[in-house]
Amino acid sequence: MFVVLVRGNEAKMIEHIANDVLNKFLSTTSKDFNDFVGIDDHIAKMSVLLHMECEEVRMVGIWGSSGIGKTTIARALFSRLSRHFQSSIFIDRAFISKSMEIYSRGNPDDYNMKLNLQRNFLSEILDKKDIKIDHLGALAERLKYHKVLIIIDDLDDQVVLDTLAGQAQWFGRGSRIIAITKDKHILTAHGINHIYEVKLPSEKLALEILCQSAFGKNTPPHGYMELACEVVERVDSLPLGLNVLGSHLRGEDKEYWLDQLSRLRKGIDGKIHKTLRVSYDGLNNKEDKALFRHIACLFNYAGIIEIKKLLADSDLDVNIGLRNLNDNSLIQIRRQTVVMHSLLQEMGKEVVRSQSNEPGEREFLTDSKDICNVLEEDIGSRNVLGISLNKDEIDEKLHVHNSAFKGMRNLRFLNIYTNQSRTKDRLHLLEGLDYLPPKLRLLSWDRYPMRCMPSKFCPKYLVKLKMQGSKLEKLWEGIGNLTCLDYMDLSESENLKEIPDLSLATNLKTLNLSGCSSLVDLTLSIRNLNKLMTLEMSGCINLKTLPSGINLQSLVSVDLRKCSELNSFPDISTNISDLDLNETAIEEIPSNLHLQNLVSLRMERIKSERLWASVQPLAALMTALTPLLTKLYLSNITSLVELPSSFQNLNKLEQLRITECIYLETLPTGMNIESLDYLDLSGCTRLRSFPEISTNISTIYLNNTGIEEVPSWIENLSKLRFLYMRKCFKLKCVSLNICKIKQLEKADFTVSRIHSNKASWCDSPSAVVMETDNVHVHPTLPAPKEASSSTYVPKLYRKFVNCFILSQEALLQGYKGTDISRFRACAMVELDRRLYPLYPYIVIQICCRFSDRFGNSFQSFGQPHSFTPYHQKGSHLFIFDCRLLLNRDNATPDELNYNQVCIEFRIIEDRSIFILKGCGIRIFEDHCPSPDNQPDNVSSTLGVARWALPHPTKRNVFKDLTLALNGAKQQFLKRRARGE
């Protein structure tokens, strides 16, 4: 470890390392939570568990009963901490439900569900759309050097925590993962030992919480103190109850308060339900109450649009009802999804249970024991409107009576689901099923055990039919009256051989037949589906043909990937915007093909060798494509030698992937598709020239190509962020003009032999990996978020130790400001070649410590930089930029006197493998005056010191870094000669 020290004894500096780093991290309170009473006390207790000064990855749990304030504490933490991490994410229930909705609801064996959960997670935390991952190790690969803050709220499923934060080593050093749940077992089962139990607030704090909600201040107005204290007592200080009731009483007079207190005194069952029931009873009309019960029993976390469709024939005004429930704090609307707190949901279910002592007489059935009793004994009545049964909660085998639903003629919503797709089903229909109610609007039955539906079932009012993983071979005979049907999902029904005649399903918008591996063809009746928008048939491995000669005007999305027997191009709509034909057996492109609205086309890994055997198919395809196209993915086009010039006409193209085209040699010259942001030509082994196709591109993949040079004009790609050229064995030269691209975050030349030309280094925020014999350009991870470091330095002495050769122009500027101070760092590292294959990465981090003469100090860590050494011999010089935020406005009085700075280089991987032989820094600032204009006494007349350096010129930057390397070598040789 080498240290850059500004005045003072090194041992003393080490002795005074900050022990209150977390307080510095949390010094700025978000205004979003100023009104949350008691938040500082919660934060202080969490700070001990988070232990932010520790560089290990730490997982912390927040545990407590529903409504006690866990989510609010977590959001306050996120607001205060997120800016100190490279990436951060707050995962709520809506995010989890949306990521898992089309799968088996948390089945720990559902690989695709986990993959989708990780995919959505990475898209959010990295702020990138359409991230592609094909294995569960991708999350760790992408985040293992990222310092991240992850908060997962309202956890009730172990699989979510295991999938998103399975192991600490998935994330970079200093990362923090916070899991919030009411089930302590989820935390302990995951090995989380640092758990914060949220307890009820004191009576004083509870009174303040109520007053904030009811009056907008911490104390009640004159004459309300006694009333407010009684409310606190009645709700037993539960924060959710205080907030809900306070919102309900806001703006009301004393008489109204007295009336509500009178109702509370009547002894409504349960401390929690006392408060929540009052808010429910306070709703102005019966329709709002009915909508609340529907949501509590059936539609929590459902989309607004879906709820409207399912209740369209009812007497409920869904729009006004949702607004009223939201205004009364009984639900929240998040991302067009209705969210009801679990306590409120339980209260709603309790309201329904209180309707009758006989479960079969209630309007909704949600308790598994009650449902089992009703279905086995055939005692359901006309009062029952909805059933929601989790089959995983069935203790013993449930033998459903064959006429169990006959008495429930008004049943409109039937949802039977499971989270465990591979466990043996406990629900049995030993005598079959004779009857399903005719008024059903929702029929969702996971793993339906029968080969067909009841013969007399009339789906006249059915809006949503979802039978995932069923044993159905067919639904019914003849033409069903499906005029109300909007959504049909029969996915993973492996025995399904045919779907019913859909001639009357004129309102169907989504048809999902994915994974129906026995399905051979699609009924011609789909020509009547004039409102069909989405057709999902991925994984229908025996599907051979689709109806042709029809044109479904509304159809915009067709997914036929992995239909490995499908050999003809789909001819069912000219208005398709998203078409996926990956891994099909398409043999030809129709010469008259015209897709006027196509936006996205995927045709990769086509099974048929005939498709691309000649140039005609590609020509026909290019003729069919329209300027609306934004995504085009093709592969293995054996006839492609030169990219057609007609690509220039695709002036809205954003993503182009043409991979494994082994005969592709050139791209048209002078082409500039201004909209193109993403280009992938990987596997085009005969491609010799660097593609000049767009000046606005941000991501380029050229892995395993025959490109020989990265040209000097690459500096014109000013928006380039990522360049991948792995296994480019013919690559001879990379222009160092690549460093002029200020947006560049990573350039990867793994297993590529390259030689540097003599271009000058430039001021780029990207890091550069160099070897002393053979230069390799390899920028590192994305630029870090600025660390929070407040420095007001009356007098800063410029004495640097172990920096060897530093530019004499490194002066401190005397003007005030809160801008980012930046410096370029270099470190020379040698590795133990015997152990190198076991440790392919080098991670270097810089720590800056600020101290005063009284021993007060704090420290700020730079973003770790990851490098890959490409050879086992020789020293490696790593050059990278660091940035610090000098935020004087947030400085505490003690911080204003810091006048000593210690800069420390650290190798955070195994230090026995990597040896730090030398290091140096060069401080710079873009807007500094030139050296000639600097006052002689600048270092002794500082009001506010900022590290700064004149903007480096093209001529002197590389020279300075080279001097640093030479100086490091000389110092190392001297120390070795002295036996140090």
TrEMBL record:
Organism: Brassica cretica
GO BP annotation list: defense response
Xref: Gene3D superfamilies: Helical domain of apoptotic protease-activating factors, P-loop containing nucleotide triphosphate hydrolases, Ribonuclease Inhibitor
Ranges in a coiled coil: none
Molecular function terms from GO: ADP binding; hydrolase activity
Highest taxon of source: Eukaryota
SMART domains assigned to the protein according to its UniProt record, in alphabetical order: AAA (SM00382)
Protein name: AAA+ ATPase domain-containing protein
Keyword Metal-binding: no
Keywords of the record: Hydrolase, Leucine-rich repeat, NAD, Repeat
Location of the AAA+ ATPase domain: 56-201
Keyword Cell division: no
Listed transmembrane segments: none
InterPro entries: AAA+_ATPase, Apaf_helical, Disease_R_plants, Leu-rich_rpt_3, LRR_dom_sf, NB-ARC, P-loop_NTPase, WH_DNA-bd_sf
